[in-house]
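Appendix C: a fully annotated inverse folding record. The material below is reproduced so that readers can follow the format used throughout the book. The structure is listed first as tokens, followed by the designed sequence.
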């Protein structure tokens, strides 16, 4: 046995182990390189994508702010500069070596190539190698791309009641039927039993869709048949879609002018020019009023129209800036009322706009001779509307609370042409 052990090939066995170790080390180095360098590359890719997204949104926001002047183009380069500023703040300085930030307005690739109003941002970071340097010496490029745009979209909502918790945030009573045509009714209140309340067997709400965050209550003989449309409860609340809309600057508006003349049969005919009206306006009895197109700023005092006269206001927005609860917007009466909003500009589609921090009530009571179109907007107020006969009382209502009554049918008719638009800013690629 000793003789046999002495002739075994001991030297060759030690060489085989060395080769095996060398091969294993190479594989281990590859695994380490893949794990560490790969993980760092993945982390950098996420950071680059987040930066590209934010930079594209910043550019699109700038394009939108200047859209009326530049129509979605970037002649001064301010939108591209906004994108590069955001990228630099996130560590991509665009030095041409470590990082490269490319901004294309309009995009040069993808589904939005050549489209004004869109911005494309490509972020490249040249990542240094660590363990993977055993496979090469050049930097590893990490790229991310994003495209964003901002655009106007029409608000397809007939009624939005903004209050988040009140019982009876939308209350409908009386013997009338309110018909919201072409758009849903949205009630943001989370009250589980009665965010929407119908009182009486003849109180009817008709709409294609009725969305309620909380629940609804049917009182006084009302049944499920009094809700004409698809009813969904437990939906998510919607934000105020006109929260972006600035209040008119009264200092930039002229002082409104009123001229008057006697009318046959009694009362006066008042002709008004747009502008600021200190102390508001009030008309009653047989007075007839013609409001020329433009913005009417009620600097305290409110706006009141009642009686048997007529109100003609085409292309008009009434802005109410009250200082007391009595300074309401109140349009009632038995005469002819025609109110339509501006068809262009900042306040396109807005017929009545109350200071969004004012909780002064707003009242519209119409008869068969009323024809009101456009949006009625009072974000922190309770609005009260009622109708007698087949009457049009606006295209859209947005208020904190809403109470509806009446003895006949009246309509809120959603229509894209007279309504304001909401800004939609987002990533599209």
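Designed amino acids, in order:
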């Amino acid at each position: 046995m000793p003789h046999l052990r002495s002739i075994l090939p001991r030297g060759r066995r030690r060489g085989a182990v060395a080769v095996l170790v060398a091969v294993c080390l190479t594989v281990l180095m590859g695994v380490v390189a893949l794990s560490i360098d790969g993980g760092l590359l993945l982390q950098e890719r996420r950071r680059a994508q987040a930066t590209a997204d934010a930079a594209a949104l910043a550019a699109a926001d700038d394009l939108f702010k200047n859209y009326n002047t530049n129509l979605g183009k970037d002649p001064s380069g301010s939108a591209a500069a906004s994108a590069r500023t955001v990228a630099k703040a996130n560590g991509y300085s665009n030095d041409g070596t470590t990082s490269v930030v490319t901004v294309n307005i309009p995009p040069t690739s993808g589904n939005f190539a050549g489209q004004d109003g869109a911005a494309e941002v490509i972020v490249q970071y040249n990542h240094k190698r660590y363990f993977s340097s055993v496979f090469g010496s050049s930097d590893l490029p990490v790229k991310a791309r994003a495209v964003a745009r901002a655009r106007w979209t029409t608000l397809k909502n007939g009624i939005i009641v903004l209050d988040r918790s009140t019982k009876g945030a939308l209350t409908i009573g009386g013997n009338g039927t309110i018909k919201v045509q072409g758009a849903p009714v949205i009630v943001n209140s989370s009250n589980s039993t009665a965010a929407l309340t119908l009182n009486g067997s003849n109180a009817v709400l008709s709409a294609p869709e009725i969305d309620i965050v909380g629940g609804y209550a049917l009182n006084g003989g009302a049944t499920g048949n009094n809700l004409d449309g698809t009813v969904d409860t437990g939906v998510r609340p919607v934000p105020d879609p006109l929260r972006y809309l600035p209040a008119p600057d009264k200092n930039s508006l002229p002082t409104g002018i009123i001229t008057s003349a006697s009318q046959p049969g009694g009362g006066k005919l008042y002709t008004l020019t747009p502008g600021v009206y200190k102390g508001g306006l009030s008309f009653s009895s047989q007075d007839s009023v013609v409001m020329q197109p433009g913005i009417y700023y009620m600097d305290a005092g409110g706006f009141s129209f009642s009686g048997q006269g007529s109100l003609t206001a085409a292309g008009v927005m009434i802005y109410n800036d009250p200082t007391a609860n009595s300074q309401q917007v109140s349009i009632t009466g038995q005469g002819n009322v025609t109110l339509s909003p501006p068809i262009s500009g900042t306040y396109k589609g807005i017929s009545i706009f109350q200071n969004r921090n004012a909780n002064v009530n707003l009242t519209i009571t119409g008869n068969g001779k009323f024809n009101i179109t456009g949006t009625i907007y009072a974000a922190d107020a309770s609005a009260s509307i009622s109708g007698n006969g087949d009457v049009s009382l606006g295209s859209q209502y947005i208020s904190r609370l809403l109470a509806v009554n009446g003895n006949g049918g009246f309509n809120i008719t959603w229509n894209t042409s007279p309504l304001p638009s909401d800004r939609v800013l987002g990533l599209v690629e």
